[in-house]
Amino acid sequence: LAGSARFKAIITGKGGHGAVPHAAIDPVVAASSAVLSLQQLVARETDPLQSAVVSVTFIKGGEAFNVIPESVTLGGTFRSMTTEGLSYLMRRIKEVIEGQALVGRCTATVDFMEEELRPYPATVNDVGVYAHAKAVAEEMLGDTNMRLCPQVMAAEDFGFYAQKFPAAFFSVGVRTSEEITHVHTPHLVVGEDALPVGAALHAAVAIEFLNKHVAS
């Protein structure tokens, strides 16, 4: 799983009437330029053989049809499979937003909200712990009910544990029908029959690990 962080930026100009834009300093145009320029961080600055994501997920400005707002707020998430990649994106996101604001005669503040929510490190499975968990799951559930998940840009705070101790991250399927629904949607229905299976698997992984290592 990827390391992830978030950002929120406020681009401030000078509000005015939409009929006389030359008398205002338009933060909407500056914010639009910033959103487009941020796409270059992945498309033109990231090695194609590496994984990175920069997604602007919200943008908020004025509410009236004929008024140029004084400020625009935008924000989103950025992700990388490495700590170095995450740090690079953080630095460049700030530079790009502030730079595009300056081009539009605006000012910008960029907040990565690190005090509210620390950036998640990438979750990297320990080879030995992964092999142990896989063997226990295959014995308990059968190898046909096990599969290796591809690398994805989702993120988990479990990565903090994996930084301190050898760890392995696995998921338990909870689909209830052939139709696939996703998290962060109102359509997700969790198959609760999977809950005791997941609990038993977690317990078995821990017990078997202790049996092997305490005895030795």
UniProtKB/TrEMBL annotation:
Keywords: Hydrolase, Signal. InterPro entries: Amidohydrolase (IPR017439), Bact_exopeptidase_dim_dom (IPR036264), Peptidase_M20_dimer (IPR011650). It holds the Pfam family M20_dimer. One of its GO terms (molecular function) is IAA-Ala conjugate hydrolase activity. It comes from the Eukaryota. Residues 3-100 form the Peptidase M20 dimerisation domain. GO terms for biological process: auxin metabolic process. One of its GO terms (cellular component) is endoplasmic reticulum. Coiled coil: none annotated. Hydrolyzes certain amino acid conjugates of the plant growth regulator indole-3-acetic acid (IAA). Belongs to the peptidase M20 family. This is Peptidase M20 dimerisation domain-containing protein.
